[in-house]
Amino acid sequence: MHTGTGKATHAQTRRHNNRLVLKMVYDQGPISRAEIARSTNLTATTVSTVISKLIADGLVEEIGSLATERGKPPTLVSLVKDARHVIALDLSRHEFQGAILNLRGEIQQRQSLPVAGSTGDEAVTLVLTLIESLLPHAHSPLLGIGIGAPGIIDLNHNLIRRAANLGWENLALGEKLTEHFGLQAQIVNDNQAVLLAEFLFGNYKHTADMVVVRIGNGIGAGVLANGQLLHGNGTGAGEIGHVVVVKDGEPCRCGGHGCLETVASSRAIVKQAQAIARQNHTSSLHALAPAPEAITIQTVIQAFQAGDPEIQALVAKVAYYLGLMIAHLLAVVGMPRVLLCGSVTGFGEPLLAAIRHEVAQLTLVGRINEPHIAMASLATDLSNQIMMGAAATLLAHELGLFL
Amino acid sequence: MHTGTGKATHAQTRRHNNRLVLKMVYDQGPISRAEIARSTNLTATTVSTVISKLIADGLVEEIGSLATERGKPPTLVSLVKDARHVIALDLSRHEFQGAILNLRGEIQQRQSLPVAGSTGDEAVTLVLTLIESLLPHAHSPLLGIGIGAPGIIDLNHNLIRRAANLGWENLALGEKLTEHFGLQAQIVNDNQAVLLAEFLFGNYKHTADMVVVRIGNGIGAGVLANGQLLHGNGTGAGEIGHVVVVKDGEPCRCGGHGCLETVASSRAIVKQAQAIARQNHTSSLHALAPAPEAITIQTVIQAFQAGDPEIQALVAKVAYYLGLMIAHLLAVVGMPRVLLCGSVTGFGEPLLAAIRHEVAQLTLVGRINEPHIAMASLATDLSNQIMMGAAATLLAHELGLFL
Q1: What is the pLDDT of residues A116-168, one digit of tens each?
Q2: Closest CA to A364 of B188, B160, B244
Q3: Long-range contacts: A366-370, Cβ < 8 Å, 24+?
Q4: Which residue, of A142, A373, B95, B190, is most buried by count of CB atoms within 10 Å of its CB?
């Protein structure tokens, strides 16, 4: 259902056709002009005109022909994946990450810059510095900048409405970057970026209905429904980490108490493991870390894998709360494909199995649909995936690959 | 973001233009042809051709002209709201409800039929009987049948995947009705119908982002995001009544334990009030009902309004659980407009205020956005609203009014 649409002008039609043909080459290439015409319902002449323009622009190339049984074999055209590059940033971590990617989301160059507690204008300056350090490494014309940012993003207004950790409120970062670098810039929520990376580059390419849940230092979700990103117009869609799941629970960095992040984020898990280490002098954690303060999420994962019973119980509790949240999420959106990412997924398949069990216990939708709860396909390096998703957003806007 | 679209054929273009012009007349009429051309970017000739066809079909009429300062005053065209009628059903209650509605969703005639425990084919026969009883009252050509049905609906396949109370599983009711009556038939989930009624006929006309939550015998939600119904492709989107909110709680009719419906549905509230009446011989309930078994949701609402402290505490608990669920819902979809309907909303503004308070306590998104939690605008008779929404779905399909 869409709420009304006007008839296209000629310029809009031309732009639409260009995007349509490029999308066909991107998704289906190598492909013949005739096949593009068949699939798009465009005339052969229109397709040829558009392809000639794309070849002139260097975005598409002819790559020889396909052997056929009779007649002149059709020439195939293919995407030139390095015809343009994109700068993409992940601003969701203690280190800002930046990279140059090609049109297939392949990372060409990567840089990082520690945030070291910078906030406000200082943090914006860091973003500029990071981009400047990447610019000399771009060996193809740059299409623009994609930014995966934490917090509440207004996708329509290209605005960071609220990123508490960075002290940003109603920051028009896209506009700022465009002014400074003369490049298009698009902002997307970091968790939603993970989703878009799956959709354009991952194993779940073109899966129109899926959910990504990130469980790391923070917890957040991205939802794709009918191929549409549920971005909430800057109202905080996907901010599932800050729903209270423990009444009068631990204080949360959001100002609330007992939020999901206070029991299931990597930060919360580490804190609970440290308490275990302090209380139990025979805990297996002591062999893995020199002192309770030195315990990291990796330490806890090791203790879990070694079978430490207290840590097993801790992870079971984490699985319960994550299962509860995913149960609520699925009851709202109904879709059965849930992809997990973030440091807490380091507990691996046992955690996933426990979450699956909880979801099936906790919701009818979960029982009926047997939801597929799996790891995000690109998340072996989450920062890479966020940058790929940020690049995907930019590609969507500039080339119409899916937005 | 949409996942690819082909170029339109001429027939598709014509159909699209027809729908576009009709939608303009529907939404903006009385309106001049020139204004339609300006708003749609269609040529004046195309608009005139389409309007002539719509006038010939009886859907649109000329209604005189608008006085202008200079030049020939343009003739205005307007929708003929009784040009077509629609049969709409609400199958979500103990009595199946049916009505004939016009193009503005105004109810012309209403019939009902007690279900009396019928399930399976017997219940299907009741549906046929109900429609047959309505047919003689249709005084305009019928566009088709819209059905608001409980349970999990596959909108794309026009299928009732699962309506437990009626014993229906994978029932192609739309197809069955089309075969039987030679009329188009469209099925939509009952709660989603409430949402669509608001969108096409209610106070929240054209509000592209909103949530409807129905709290009656059952609890369910409908979500409209960017003007798109989140229908979940038959996976049970909006089945929020069957998420466990009380660990090891009361058994639920879905087979689970401690679902939201076991604490916050009208059924659950009545059950708890009955227990109060049985335990407390000075309860104000005794003055309102001859025996605990005679207590209904209306009795409980009366006791609440009279200030009964035990019932006040009961409603506070209900508000907590509803607030918790809405908090989870808003954290996923982020949108701030929530409309409530169903018998439990009979507790009125105090319940709404308590829910608002809980949502603000229970989620960051709730604190940031100050969600508008209000009554659905048409829900003084919920069955009417469901039938209006079912009619809206049919109108969307047949006339392209918004789908």
Answers
A1: 999 999 999 999 999 999 999 999 999 999 999 998 999 889 999 989 889 99
A2: B244
A3: A366/A326, A366/A327, A366/A330, A367/B255, A367/B256, A368/B152, A368/B162, A368/B235, A368/B236, A369/A330, A369/A334, A369/A336, A369/B235, A369/B236, A370/A336
A4: B190
**Model-level pTM?**
0.90
Q: Which helix (H) or strand (E) holds B83?
A: none
B169 pLDDT more than 60: yes
Q: What are phi and psi of A292, to 5 degrees?
A: -50, -40
Q: Which helix (H) or strand (E) holds A349?
A: helix A348-362
Nearest CB to B230: which of A5, A229, A333?
A333
Confidence of residue B2 (pLDDT cuts 50, 70, 90): very low
pLDDT at position B4, please? 39
The answer to whether residue A8 neighbours chain B at the CB level (below 8 Å) is yes
How many secondary structure helices (H) and strands (E) does chain B include? 14, 16
Asked whether residue A1 carries a pLDDT value surpassing 80, the answer given is no
Residue among A309, A287, A88, A53 nearest A201 (CA): A88
CA pair distance A76, A64, nearest whole angstrom: 6
Q: How far apart are CA A103 and CA A395, in angstroms?
A: 8
Query: Is A332's CB within 8 Å of B336's CB?
Result: no
Answer whether A400 touches B (CB < 8 Å).
no
Question: Å from B2 to nearest chain A CA?
Answer: 5
Which residues of chain B are within 8 Å of residue A5 when distances are taken between CB atoms? 20
Rounded CA-CA distance A189/B333 in Å is 14
Q: Average pLDDT in the A230-253 region?
A: 89
Token digits of residue B220: 């369910």
Spatial distance between the Cα atoms of A351 and A288, rounded to a whole number of angstroms: 21
